[in-house]
Amino acid sequence: LLARPDMVGRMLKWSLELAEFDISFESRKALKAQVLADFVAEMTTSTTSEKNKWTIFVDGSSNSQGSGAGIILENGDEVLIEVSLGLSFPTTNNQAEYEAFLAGLRLAEDMGAEEITIFTDSQLVASQVSGEYQTKEERLLEYLNLIRAKIAKFKETEVKHVPREHNARADVLSKLASTRRKKAGNQSLIQETLTKPSIEKTAEVMYICAVDEQSWMSPVYNFLKSNTLPIDAKEAAKIRKRACSYVLLDDKLYRRGFSIPLLKCVEEERVEFILQEIHEGINGQHIGGRSLARKALRAGYY
């Protein structure tokens, strides 16, 4: 247009003003493939997600007034969780430090963390976990084995020793303080109490369906289990007919239903406990007899 101003009258004045600068038109050249490749390499952002990288500050304390653990879990500026954990059992200072370390690992696992960096002001704990120091005390060795089993669940774990002055907040939480500090994103302060050491295993209780010889379901159970029937032909026929309404799964007797799932058959000594829980338990409504029976059926018991 500047070369032929006669075609566009409005640009004539602009053309005369710009003529002194000797402006010439140059067509755009083709974009080189290498330039495009350099641009893509320079401007492409990292696809690695930072959301699963967590930082944990832990500290434990034990004195004449009691024991406690402080845990701070951070994920950048998005999430901040502070835990003040009371220990209601006797501990040494080193055991309290290990309890704080374990609590931090459990919290990170619950939050779905994959890569964690743990800061502790205990030189002993940091060195023993990293393998620099040996652990001779049997009780601390149990803690260490439990920690290593927890660490194995994460993709990447780094343990660092930090001076106490840089771990002041966790130290305050370990003393069960209730102070807060502002930070962007979601934050919460959790206060809990641990009633027993983490290294003490909870005994696993296995429920065994023991069928009493005098139980109402013994004849049906024995027939379905081992095809055992009474000598009396009439009684045997009744049991065969009755057994059609029952099924044996994992050595437990269930009654079939038409519009409801299988109902678990229970012994007489457990009936009172189950009905009491339904009637007076934490979810109980103190209902009448018939309603209680229907509710027991809906709960899956017969």
From TrEMBL:
- UniProt xrefs under SUPFAM superfamilies: Ribonuclease H-like (SSF53098)
For this protein, the parts annotated as crossing the membrane are none
A GO MF label: nucleic acid binding
Q: Where is the signal peptide?
A: none
Give start and end of each RNase H type-1 domain: 50-179
> Could you tell me what this protein is called?
RNase H type-1 domain-containing protein
Q: What is the lineage of its organism?
A: Eukaryota, Viridiplantae, Streptophyta, Embryophyta, Tracheophyta
